[in-house]
Amino acid sequence: MLALRPNCECCDTDLAADSREAMICSFECTFCAACASDVLGGRCPNCTGELVRRPVRPAEKLVNNPASTERVVNAGGCAAAA
User: Fold this and answer.
1) Cα–Cα distance measured from residue 5 to residue 66, given in angstroms and rounded to the nearest whole number
2) Cα dihedral 50→46→58→63 (10° resolution)
3) pTM to 2 decimals?
4) pLDDT tens by residue, 16-29
5) Which InterPro entries match (predicted)?
């Protein structure tokens, strides 16, 4: 099950569980749409995988399967994937 991390790893912008601005790679690294496109060029800086829009979990499912509260932030910001 997706963790639905609460923030962008680059800029620490909040990303609510229902955000359509959240982008993830296959390892669930999470970025806002602006960082994913403008900074990272659609590639995860951690694994070089493709960044795609994170699915939205229906609100009624969040009751028993809440989003993660663990924030992951790259202390030095992010550079484009090599």
Assistant:
1) 10
2) 170
3) 0.91
4) 999 999 999 999 99
5) DUF1272 (IPR010696)
